[in-house]
């Protein structure tokens, strides 16, 4: 043993036998606790994937359950005008079409190298749906900005369903199956790249708005699962 690798330490205490100096010498390091080995990163990665799979299963099961019905607080009928892709004016009142979210006015989307005004196109699609016909809206209270929330139909066509199915809006508490069909068929927004309207508003200083059925416990759980799953996927991809 080399001299520089050998150290002495004094070990003693009140329990030393009489007549002894109370001191003895030992070899080794004093005052340094034994280091524990760090767990390998593979276990943490596997745990993250298992958690992500469980979240995905939970989100899928929750998404299959039908949304709860809200009590109808009123009904409006008449000739409507479109403010944007998900808002109407009917009988002098502002109606936010419930369960959908359309690109905002001024929001741009892309198809390959080409940019297009998806916000304006969503509005044009809604204008075409309500043109020359009577619009009927069943109201379900108000959103946080005072607009009345309503499920609206024109000429027997559910406006929210048609906007999502054609790819000019996304599901925002309702019409989940219609969004899946639009995505599979690469219709409208799904034919290129776009930022969901909610994210676009956050990035551009727009008004915050929660999903219209967020007050319902099921929608809150689904929204949390989707956001958390996306965050985990982004983190794993970054690693």
Number of strands: 13
Rg, Cα atoms, Å: 31 Å
Structural class: alpha+beta
Instruction: Count helical runs.
Output: 6
Specify the biggest β-sheet.
7 strands, mixed
Distance between the termini: 44 Å
* Proportion of residues in β-strands: 15-25%
Poorly predicted ranges: 6-30
Q: What general outline do the C-alpha atoms trace?
A: globular
Helical fraction equals: 25-40%
Q: Quick check: average pLDDT?
A: 77
Order of helices and strands: EEHEEEEEEEHEEEHEHHH
Structure at a glance:
With 239 residues, this protein is an alpha+beta fold.
Description:
The strands form four sheets. Strands 3, 4, 5, 6, 10, 11 and 12 form a seven-stranded mixed sheet that branches. Strands 1-2 form a two-stranded antiparallel ribbon. It is 34% helix and 23% strand. The protein is globular and about 55 Å long. Helix 1 (41-64) runs antiparallel to helix 6 (217-238) and helix 3 packs parallel to helix 4 (176-184). By secondary structure, the protein is an alpha+beta fold. The model is unreliable at 6-30 (pLDDT under 50). It has helices at residues 41-64, 118-130, 159-165, 176-184, 197-203, 217-238, and strands at 8-12, 23-27, 74-78, 80-84, 87-90, 93-97, 100-101, 109-111, 114-116, 135-142, 148-154, 157-158, 170-171.
